[in-house]
Amino acid sequence: MAADLRVLHLGFEDPLMPGAGGGSVRTHQINRRLAALGFDVTVLTTTYPGARERVQDGVRYVPVGIGQGRNRLTRLLGYIVRLPLETRRRRQDADLVVEDFFAPFSTMAAPLWAGRPTVGMVQWLHARDKARQYKLPLHWLERLGVRSHHSLIAVSQGTASKLAALNPAASVDVVGNGISPESLEGEIGLGRHVLFVGRLELHLKGLDLLLAAWATAARQIGDKLIIAGSGPDTEKIERLIASLGLGSSVELVGWVSGEHKLALMRSARLVVVPSRHETFGLVAVEALASGTPVMIFDIPCLREVVPAGCGWQVEPFDTEALAAELVRRYSDEAALVDAGRRGRAFARNFDWDVQSRRQADIYRAAVGIPVPA
Known about the structure:
Blueprint (H helix, E strand, L loop, with lengths): L5 E7 L9 H15 L3 E7 L7 E3 L2 E6 L7 H19 L5 E5 L17 E5 L4 H8 L3 H10 L3 E4 L2 H10 L4 E4 L18 E5 L9 H15 L3 E4 L5 H10 L6 E5 L3 H9 L1 E6 L8 H9 L3 E4 L4 H4 L5 E4 L4 H12 L2 H15 L4 H15 L7
Parallel strand pairs: 1-2, 1-5, 2-4, 5-6, 6-7, 7-8, 9-10, 9-12, 10-11, 12-13, 13-14
Antiparallel strand pairs: 3-4
């Protein structure tokens, strides 16, 4: 029966791991709903200090690695080494394997060794940027891995277009992210601070660009930039803040989630997502749901989730333009409130229940189960 489909999800990141990103949130929100439909879902993730096998909301999580995974590199290497072995060991109990793409090279080409029908779940496709950062041909590994897949799920149309260019023969479906219903509650008002929420990666997330712009805008705005999150570049970001003389106008508050994150978004005047690359932009949609307008660089994927009227798009990576737009919009109270209302209305389109049912149909089709039209 379709409701008894057994899914082995190569999920990479555990949502309970401190500093876990939006990708793990999506993995859990979809899988918990599949479990409620009767799917049997096991997720293999990297290990980390304190990680343990558990069942959460009907989803089984199994940490995979070598040792305790005390840092990012050992977690990554342990996962890469152990994942094929663990997958082959468990595949007799799976009807379908789902491979989440992950940094720095996206995919391990799971269809070549999983031994089961395989679907690629693409929430990350930035190997070319990592290739420039590390001066390694990681984008060639990404290209080869994408070409091993026959069925792919992208979280945005922009990502789907990139996948189609890399592998024209693959079937690519778009299934976006969702938001929790409680994020749409509460009054829409004007906060004070400017907010960034996300993984602390200086280049990919554009924090160097945001801080450069803030160095120009801070005095005119007269309030704080709050940076919420954790990640590999925390110390670099702290040094950059100090070198720009921003110690009194920038506050790092660490990793936030759940109600704490939602409260921080509701109390902000603007949320800035200055990424150089994104595959979806879940933080942007969460901010819109909270009633807070969003400012982005005008790049594919982000422009899909921050349409005109819900926030503002800035010429990509132009720090002077970003600073000017921050100053201009911060003081325009009427425009901020209007954008907040429009943003919340737009965010209502992102429903985890709808997205999980669509993903369930793709899984069924991948193993040859007929899907009603």
